[in-house]
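Field reference: sequence -> structure
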Amino acid sequence: MEGGVPMQTRSLEFLVGQHTIKRLSLSLALFGIGSLGSLPGCTTSTKTVEVQRTITTEAALSDFDRMWELIDTTHYDPEHNGVDWDSVRDELRPQAQDARNRREIRSVMREALDRLGQSHFGIIAEADDEVSKESDTSETSNDSSHADSTDQAQTTTETIISEDSPADDSASDGTGDGDTGIDLRILDGQAVVTAVRDQSPAQRAGVQTGWVLTNVRSRELADGLARLREYLDEIEFDINARRMILGNNLQGPPGTTIDLTFLNRDDEVVELNITRAPMPGEFVKFGNLPPMSTHLEWDRFTTTNPDGQSTEIGVIAFNIWMIPIMAQFEKAMFELRDVDGLIIDVRGNPGGIGGLAPAISRFLVSEKSSLGTMSMRGTDLQFNAEPVIVTTWGERLDPFTGPIAILIDTGSASTSEVFAGGLHSLGRVETFGTRSAGMALPAAMDKLPSGDVLLHAIADFVTSTGYRLEKDGVQLDHYVPLTREDLSNGIDSPKQAATEWIAQETAE
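Structure field:
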């Protein structure tokens, strides 16, 4: 227990939302991937094959029935968010019975989950499928009766930049623990570099913020991004496109190379061959998820206002809510205990273990506080944060009492939203950036008979003021979007706005 909240509820408390979970395998859960050839307007070369049955009717129904039963008995709302769950079973079970392989039964189950209209529902593909491999883009079925817009969106996402390339290392794209050190966001339909990690391969190659990534190997991004946008709303599009470009292609085994084409700040073409290096931080394995890198960075800087008053500000940024972050955050807070203000950056942070939100909040509140309430069927849990008194290594540490700014964007989901939204409802922080994902339901993971894993929401969450984060996201105090122009000039506009606010708050 941390802060009065169990660190796990069954398998997992908080994960990112339904479409975000596509890559955490970031990878926080997977959807099945169709093939590019099934998409409207697609001209990629494919071949049509007769799909043979590779699973029995009993196996397909076993997964479907178990999925339906788990949702029926564990969804926090007995009315299933207003969905007639019995009717969903009656309608889709015949399709499940006809499923010929794992891909088709997954598609039927995803359609059922989509009916709920909520985050944190998905299928993590674990079972083997001899005919319809999730990553196969060379063959397509001549029967798309189970395909829906979600499958098409996932297909497009997976294959935006997966076309074969002459480069020998292309087959390993997306499969290793190395990366280029680039972070990016989709701004005005373009993949714009928003950060370049210090001492990373990208930095050594000369990549700069504000550059536009146009090609990965021989594949142009523009058309794929445009097609993906047809199937997803703005939030889902931003999350999926970023995660898939970073994870499925820029990530790979350390030592492998990847050809990238950029437009620099003057819109001149820059072609680079970059060798991937190991990602920073500690790798952890959690539940049914693949190993993932967890890393936190902290720094301090001084800003001076026109009157000559100096303000010292600490900055903490981390990529995911997993156990190693706790010790790293504690060390950062100890080192930053004397700063005037604090900026906590959870942009692009998709969530993780829900109990870490109150555990980390204890460094930021001066009295016992609740970030909110997690409500399951018949049970409520308070996300209580007890103020810190002493570090785990025995040194006195008082809670930080200065102004705190939290930076958020569409990639801030789940536990990041619980943390930011909970502290915001307490009046402890102000938020800067763009709206968060609005995907904040506590979830569990259960294995289905085939070995596939069902991710499913088992609780609702509201902040201490009764504000519900699901759908609408964290309340935003200062809307400050990133722009390519600012990034090209080395300006992180949300961080700059937070800096100016802290300086005003601490002015004498």
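Note: The radius of gyration is 23 Å.
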